[in-house]
Every structure is written in C-alpha cells, then in structure tokens.
Write a structure and sequence with these properties.
- 28% of the residues lie in helices and 24% in strands.
- By secondary structure, the chain is an alpha/beta fold.
- The chain folds into 2 domains: 76 residues, Periplasmic binding protein-like II (D-Maltodextrin-Binding Protein, domain 2), CATH 3.40.190.10; 96 residues, 3-Layer(aba) Sandwich (D-Maltodextrin-Binding Protein, domain 2), CATH 3.40.190.10.
- The longest helix has 11 residues.
- The chain is elongated.
- The two termini are 19 Å apart.
Length: 209
C-alpha cells in the first residue's frame, strides 16, 4: 500500500506540511485491515518497531529494480547516471515510502552523491508524483522502478540501470497487529509467495526473490 500522498496522481512536491504522512500511520489510524503490502522491507521494519506489524508475520513476494524515468522522447538525452550530474539537468527524487532514499543508494555506489544532489530540483511525495513530474516535463529525470514502464508509456520512458548499479527493494506483506482473521491472513500471505502469484508480479516488471 501507499500513503495518501504517495498515491496521489498529482505531481505533488514535498512541503513542510504535506510530506509527513506515511502509509503505516494511515493504516493504524483506520484499524480495519488485516494485512499490509509495503514496497520496501524497511517500511515493514518500521511497522514492527511501531507495533503496527506483527513480528515474524511477514513474507517477501518479489523485488523491484531501480531505474531512471524520463519524459517521452528523452529530451535531455539522459542515458546514464553520470548524465544526471551534467549542469542544468533537473532531477526528481521521492521522500516517501518505497522510493525514499533510493537515489542515494544508487548514486553513492558511483561516487555521484554531491554531483547529483546539486541537480535535485523536485522532492516528490511518492511514486505517482515522480511519474507526473517527469510526464509534465517539470524535471528531466526521476529515480523510480523498472516496473513504472507499465504505468504511463505514452508520456514516460524507463532507462534500466546496469545490474551492478541497480538497487533492489522487496515488496513484502505483513500481518497487522489488529488483524481479526489471522488464519485467513496467513493463507493469503502464503499464496502470494507461490510461483503462481509471483508470476503476476514478474509479468509487470518485478524481479524474483
């Protein structure tokens, strides 16, 4: 699941007031769900520490691979990570949920932290905000996932990173502390880790665990 901000279909830029919500807080406030799917393991780790996810009641379904997202036609001719460090390039990162910190994980491996940070012009509230900012050409490139190629292929393009540069993050499912149907929840978690269920994720760009 995504937080309310992350799931917004607008190019929502993070602000002091608008970027603090997370999907765990929203789920806990509602208190009506049995399971939560997170786009990164750290989200479920946070949930365990905060008493929202039951310890030991988690499964990993598949992973996503980091990628660069550019407007259709790639007007800034972004091909590699080092291209993002060129003067004048406008880059977008997410400060929420599954993409939080991915730009650092990717760029630090290549010694590009300072160079890329100078070009970050848009700090987005999650996945869809990144896609919209790129599609509207408010930025030249954003950090996202290879799976984004299925979301808006007429307005964006995906540049896959070499395997040695790409970061993988797990999509996992966890049982909530206030789960009312634990046996049924476990059956669903077990099903989502079967080959049949995982094949649906792989079809849309996830990576096998």
């Amino acid at each position: 699941m995504c937080s309310r901000h992350c799931a917004s279909g607008n190019a929502e830029e993070a602000t002091r007031e608008g970027g603090s919500d997370d999907f765990l807080s929203e789920i806990a406030d509602l208190g009506v769900h049995d399971l939560a799917i997170g786009g990164a393991e750290y989200l479920l780790d946070d949930g365990e520490v905060r008493g929202i996810i039951r310890k030991g009641e988690r499964r990993v379904i598949a992973c996503r691979a980091s990628a660069l997202v550019v407007p259709a036609g790639n007007p800034a001719n972004i091909r590699t990570l080092s291209d993002i460090a060129r003067p004048g390039v406008r880059a977008a990162i997410s400060v929420l949920d599954c993409l939080k910190g991915v730009w650092e994980d990717v760029c630090a491996r290549q010694g590009l932290l300072d160079a890329v940070r100078r070009n970050i012009s848009f700090r987005a509230n999650g996945c869809l905000a990144i896609i919209e900012a790129v599609a509207q050409k408010r930025v030249d490139v954003g950090f996202g996932w290879t799976a984004f190629k299925h979301l808006d292929p007429e307005r964006i393009e995906i540049i896959a990173l070499p395997k040695e540069q790409a970061v993988l993050r797990g999509t996992g499912i966890g049982m909530l502390e206030f789960c009312k149907q634990p046996e049924g929840a476990r059956r669903l978690m077990d099903f989502l880790t079967t080959e049949r269920a995982r094949s649906c994720y792989l079809q849309y760009g996830w990576v096998p665990v």
